[in-house]
Amino acid sequence: MGEILKVSNVEKYYGNKGSLTKALDKVSFSVNEGEFTGIMGSSGSGKTTLLNCVSTIDSVTTGKIVIRDRDITAMKSRDLAKFRREELGFMFQEYNLLDTLTGFENIILPLTISGEGHKTAIEKVHMVAQRLEIEEIIDKYPYEMSGGQRQRIAAARAIITNPALILADEPTGALDSKSARMLMECLENLNKSMRATILMVTHDAFTASYCHRILFIKDGKIFNELVRGSDSRKVFFSKIIDVVTLLGGDASNVL
Amino acid sequence: MYFKLSLRNVRKSFSDYTLYFLTLTFGVCVFYVFNSIEAQKAMLHISRSALEIMKSITYVMDIVSVFVSFILGFLIVYANSFLIRRRKREFGIYMTLGMEKGKISRLLVSETIIIGIFSLAVGLLGGVFISQGLSVITAKLFEVDMKDYTFIFSLSALLKTILYFGIIFVIAIAVNTFAISKYRLIDLINAEKKNEKQKLKNPVVTWLMFIAAVLLIGVAYKMVMKNGIMRFDNTLLFECIMGAVGTFLLFASLSGFLLDIIKANKESYYKGLNMFIMRQINSRINTAHISMSFICLMLFVTIGIFSTGLGITRVLNMGYKDAAPFDISVTAEKDADIIKALEGNGVDISAYASDVQQYKLYLPAEKTTAGTIFSSVEDALPAENLEKIRADIYPLPLHLISVSAYNRLLDIQKKPHVDLTGSQFAILSQYVWQDVYLQDSLERYAKQPNKLTINGNALSVYPKVLSDGIVNNSYELITLVVPDEVLMNCEYVRTVLCFNCKGDSVAVQDEFIEAISAAKFGFGYSYASKSEILAQAGGSKAIISFIGIYIGIIFIITSAAVLALQQLSEAADNKRRYTILKKIGADNRLLSKAIFKQTAIYFFIPLAVACIHSVVGIKVANDAIRQIGSLNAGANILITAVTILAIYGAYFLATYVGSRNIILKNGSM
Predict the structure, then answer these.
(1) What would the DSSP string read from start to end of B519-581?
(2) How far is residue B155's CA from residue B136's CA, in Å, rounded to a whole number?
(3) Average pLDDT of B607-615?
(4) CB atoms A100 and B270 under 8 Å
(5) In this structure, are residues B124 and B32 in contact, taking their beta carbons and an 8 Å threshold?
(6) Measuring CA to CA, which residue among B188, B158, B156 is closest to residue B28?
(7) ipTM value > 0.95
(8) How far apart are the CA of B582 and the nearest CA of chain A, in angstroms?
(9) Of 3.40.50.2000, 3.20.20.190, 3.30.450.20, 3.40.50.300, which CATH number belongs to A3-254?
(10) What band does A37 get if pLDDT is binned at 50, 70 and 90?
C-alpha cells in the first residue's frame, strides 16, 4: 500500500503581526492508498483549513504537502488547477452542484474540462452512475433532487476522474440521518470496491464511524488518533464519542 | 448618521456600477446638448429665415425629448430596481439590526438623491462643454459661417434637464420604496442562497415558437419589400407588428432551439465548458428574452435611423446647391419687367447688386414634353418603374431659354460659356442628377445623334447635358437652351430676375426680401433667396441628423446599459457557479474564456438579429429615397457600423472586464 498523501509540519497563520491566529500548528500525518480517513474537531479547530490546504484551495504558511510524490505547496496556480482536476475529487456540505446543469452534466463536467473525448466520457458517467445507483435521477436538475440524491451526484462527480484522493468536507452536514446513512454506505462502497482513497472532515461521530482511522484536531494541532482496526462500527462509534467527550466543550455536537 | 451610511454606500456601489453612472451622466449630457440648440445662434452668422427654422427644430427637439425622457426614465427605474435587488442581503442585515423599512427607504432616497445630483452635475458640465462643439456641426449643416467664439449656455435647457431628470428620479424613488415595502426579512436574508429553478419549456413548444417566429418575420420582410414604406398606413403598421411579435417569439425560443441543436452535436456540447455556457445562456434567456427583444428592436431602429438619416442629409446636401444658383431670384408669369416694377415700389435694385440679369422662358410652337426626349431612350429607364415615370414625368412641359441669356447667367456664376452652333440645342437639367436613371438616359440621349424640331427649326442635340441652374427653386425638370434666332415671335412663359448680392450677402438678402415682400406689383410673382433655401435644406438636414443622433445615442446607450447591468448583476450570482468550476479544476484562463463567450453571446445575439432586420429595413428605405436621390448606403452603413460597434463594443468590453473581476477576484479560494 503506497502513500498517497503526506502532510509534514504544516502551519497556517491568519491575520497580521498584531493579532496572529495559528489555524494550523505543525500538523503532520499521512494517508495510504485505499484508506478512508476522517478528521474530526469542533468548529474553529482548523479541520476545514487543513482540508482546504490539502485540496490546494488555500496555501500553507510553512510546511509541505505531498500528494502522489508531488509537492503541491511548490506548484504554480495553472499547474494547481490541472492537478486539482486530475488528482483530486471534491465533495462539499452544500453539494456545490451547478443548478443550471442536469445531474448527468454535472458529473461529466470534470471530464470535459480536462478535455476527454465525449464518447469515453459519457461511458464513464454511465459506469459511475450504475455503481452509485443513481441512474434514475441522473437526468434531473439539482432542484428536483433530495439532499441525499444531490450529494450522491456530487460523489459521482468527485470520483469520475478516478482521482488519487477524494476530499469530503462535511458531506453529511446538510442531510437528515437517513440520507446521511445512505451516503456513508455509498462512500464506504466506493472505498471498498473502487479502492478510492477518501479524506473526510466531519464533526459528526456517526458519520465518522464509517472511517478506518480518525484524526482529532484541537486548536490547530493533532490531538489524538483513533484506528478502527477490526472493531465493529458500533464499538468504534462509542470510542469516538469517548474521545469527543475528552476533547471537551464539544458535548453539544455529540448529543 | 444615515447620510453618512448612504454616502458610503454610494461610494461602494459607484465602483460596482460605474457603467450605470456613466450611462446616466451621458444621458443627461446628451439631453442637455440637444435641448440647447437654439442657444447656438449666438455663435452663427445666420439669416432670419434660418432663425425661424432653428425655432422649429427646437420645437421638434422638445417633442423628441419627451420621448427620450421616457426611455431614460425606463432605464433609470429599471437600473434602480436592479441595484436594489442586488442589495437584498445588505437590507436584510440592516433589518435584523433593527432598522425599520421606513428608514431603509429613507436611506435609499438619500442615496438616489446623491447619485442624481452627482450625475446631473457632471452630465450638465459635460453637456455645456459638448454643446460648444455642436455649433460647429450646426454651422456645417446650415452652411453658414461662424462668428467669433462666444460661450454658449442655455439656461432653459439646463432647467429643463433638471426638471425632467428630477421627475424621473422621483418616480425611481417611489418604485424603490414600493419594492422595499414588499420584502420579507426571511427572503432578504436568504436572498443569495436561493437555487434558481430551471423553468424548462417543452422542446416541441420551443420548436413551434421558433418556426412561427421565422415565418412571421419572413412574411413581414416579404410584405414590406413589396409594399415599401412610402405611405404610413395600416399595412405598414401590420408589417411592423408582425416583425415585432416575430422577434419576441424568436428570442423566447432561440436559446432552447440552439441548445437542442448544439446538444445534438455531442462532440462540441461535451467540450470544455461549452455545456456550461450554453446552459447559462439558456437559463437566462428564458427569463431575459423580453428585455433582449426590446434591445434588439431598439438597436434595429438605431441602425435604421443612423444609416438612412445620414443618407438623407447627403441627398439634401447635394440638392440645395442646384436649388439656389443665385442669391436672389424673382419669377413673374408671362412677360413682365420686374426691375421697373421694383423701381415703381421705390426699390432700387442697384443698391443690392451690381450685376442683375433679367431673362425670359419661352414655349415652343410644337407640342414638346419631357416624354419627347425620354421616349427615345426608354431602355435606359428602370423597367419596374417605367409605368410610373410615363405617368409622372413624360407630361412635364419643356421650356426654352436663349443661349445668350444662359451665357449671361453663367457670367454671374463665374462659369465658362456654352457655345452652340446655329443648328444645335442643349439639354439643361438642374435636378436630374438626383435620379441616376434619368441622368443616364439624358446623357445617352445627348450622345446619340438625336434631332428635334423647335419652332420649325430642325436642331441637333449638343453632346453634353448642362446642369448649371437658371433660377432658384426651379420648377422645370428639363429646359432646352436654343440659339437666339429660334425664339423669334415665340410665346412667353415666364420672366426671371436673378442676381448675387453685394457686401454682407446674408444681411443684404434679408433686406431685399423685406423690401420685395412689402412691394405691390401689377402681376403675379414669386421670389426665393439663397439663404432661405439654405435654411430650409439646413433645417431638414439638421432635424433629421439631430433626431437621428439624439435617439440613436439614447437607444444604444440604454440598450447597452441594460445588457451590461443584467450581466454584471448576474455575475454576482454566477460567482458561485464559477467558484464551483474552479474547485473542480477549471483554471482561470478557461473561466475567463467562458465569461467572455457568455458575455459576447448575450451582447451580440440581439445585435445580430437587429442587423438582419436592418438589411431589409435599409433596402426598403433606399427604395423609398431613390425617388429623390440615391442613398449611397454603403458608406453610411460603414459609418453607422463603426459608431455602433464603438459604443456597444465599449459597453461589452467594460461588462466583460467587470464581470471577470466580480467572478474571479477575491473569490473564496
Answers:
(1) ---SS-EEEEEHHHHHHHHHHHHHHHHHHHHHHHHHHHHHHHHHHHHHHHHHHHHHHHHHHHH
(2) 20
(3) 88
(4) no
(5) yes
(6) B158
(7) no
(8) 8
(9) 3.40.50.300
(10) very high
